[in-house]
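User: tokens in, sequence out, please.
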């Protein structure tokens, strides 16, 4: 199959197994550096997986748990804080892949009218039934919205799951106002904060760096307004604008294929386990787990956690100095 970004058929194999050791072939495009699963799963298999299996296999639970909602709410608040300058004054927002609605709650608490779409039936119905959020059980390919409906559309860790990411961005752009924004966050294929064994798995069909993510937006007819890489290098974000449309043309930095391929080869298990950061992560996770347990015991249900943290003016569950910051129950 050809590259979704540049249509080239020229590719090198970078892996033959997934993180569980099962067969999964991943290749890198020699023309642009986009990494993809090859061959792609069938459309029906992808739809079935995300509608019924993804949350259970990927998150460990078919429905939101208190701990998962707690973590997701903290992430949602961090995202909102980072994106405030771009979302300011935008009153109609769509969150694609809304999960159980944490980012929608944060937007609602800040006075923004927000809706979401989420293909997983259990999570989308939980957001509607327990939190009263406007989350439809559908995906980007089946949802129907009029042109110019939204001031901004957000996709947090969605694009890498799609067989046709450029097509998805192009369709979503049609739902934006003439000066609307698309906010896209994905894992960074250049990231080295995780184990190299965990890089490839069935759920992620494409792997981007800032170059290919920006180029995907340009090919969809958008322009790149802002780029961001997380502190640990594990995630990247671009803000794409309709205001200065790219007419479908895109640019890829010369040597991007070589750069990504070199980084993939260089991030070996030996280097990973020799890094001090690798051995500090379990300690950090253990401390976080204890703090989360204390919060979850206090608020008990996922709905209690979501409603408490989603209230206007609520603090983060864990402050920067790691002290509990939830309001009294």
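Assistant: Sequence out:
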């Amino acid at each position: 199959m050809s590259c979704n970004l540049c249509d080239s058929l020229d590719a090198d194999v970078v892996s033959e197994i997934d993180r569980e050791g099962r067969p999964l072939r991943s290749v890198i495009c020699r023309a642009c550096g986009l990494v993809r699963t090859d061959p792609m799963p069938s459309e029906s298999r992808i739809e079935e997986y995300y509608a019924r299996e993804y949350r259970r296999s990927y998150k460990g639970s078919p429905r939101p748990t208190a701990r998962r909602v707690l973590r997701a709410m903290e992430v949602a608040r961090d995202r909102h804080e980072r994106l405030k300058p771009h979302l300011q004054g935008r009153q109609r927002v769509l969150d694609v892949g809304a999960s159980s609605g944490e980012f929608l709650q944060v937007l609602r608490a800040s006075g923004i009218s927000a809706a979401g779409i989420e293909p997983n039936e259990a999570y989308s119905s939980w957001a509607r039934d327990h939190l009263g959020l406007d989350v439809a059980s559908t995906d980007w390919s089946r949802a129907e919205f009029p042109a110019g409906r939204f001031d901004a559309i957000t996709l947090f860790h969605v694009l890498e799951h799609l067989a046709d990411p450029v097509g998805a961005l192009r369709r979503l752009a049609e739902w934006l106002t003439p000066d609307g924004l698309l906010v896209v966050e994905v894992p960074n294929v250049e990231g080295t904060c995780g184990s190299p064994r965990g890089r490839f798995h069935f759920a992620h069909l494409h792997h981007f760096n800032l170059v290919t993510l920006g180029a995907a937006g340009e090919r969809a007819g958008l322009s790149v307004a802002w780029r961001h890489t997380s502190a640990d290098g594990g995630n990247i974000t671009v803000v794409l604008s309709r205001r200065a449309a790219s007419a479908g043309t895109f640019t890829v930095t010369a040597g991007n294929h070589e750069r990504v391929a070199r980084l993939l080869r260089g991030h070996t298990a030996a280097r990973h386990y020799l890094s001090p950061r690798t051995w500090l992560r379990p300690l950090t996770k253990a401390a976080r787990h204890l703090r989360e347990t204390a919060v979850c015991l206090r608020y008990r249900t996922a709905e209690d956690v979501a409603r408490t943290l989603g209230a206007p003016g609520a603090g983060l569950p864990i402050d920067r100095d790691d002290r509990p910051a939830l309001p009294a129950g």
